[in-house]
Amino acid sequence: MSLKYYQDDDILVIRLSRKPYDYAEKEGDFIVHFSKDNKLVRIEVLNAKRFLEETHSILPHELKKKFASV
Questions:
Q1: Band of pLDDT at residue 59, cut at 50, 70 and 90
Q2: Which of 12, 33, 38, 70 could form a disulfide with 42 if both were Cys (CB 3.0 to 4.6 A apart)?
Q3: What total of structural domains would you count in the chain?
Q4: Which helix (H) or strand (E) element contains residue 3?
Q5: What single string gives the DSSP state of each residue in 21-51?
């Protein structure tokens, strides 16, 4: 798993697998990408700063440290 935050676009990308993704579905501020065999590959969190502020109290400690400046 890897995490990357794009500050200019305010998008948090969570890569769960190195498999190529085949299609994506959007629900609210989330875009989820799936492989051809319907496995979850990647999650994009739009408006990530707001999401992190709203969920800060339940985030794991390592994520809080990584995104403390967001």
A1: low
A2: 33
A3: 1
A4: strand 2-6
A5: P-EEEEETTEEEEE-TTS-EEEEEEETHHHH
Q: Lay out the sheet containing 30-34: strands in order across.
A: 2-6, 11-15, 40-46, 30-34, 23-27
Phi, psi values for residue 47, rounded to 5°: 55, 50
As a whole number of angstroms, the distance between CA 24 and CA 49 comes to 22
What is the DSSP code (8-state) at residue 5? E
Full residue range of the structural domain in which residue 7 is found: 2-66
Q: Which residues lie below 8 Å from residue 26, measured CB to CB, with a gap of 6+?
A: none
Q: Is 69 helix (H, G, I), strand (E, B) or coil?
A: coil
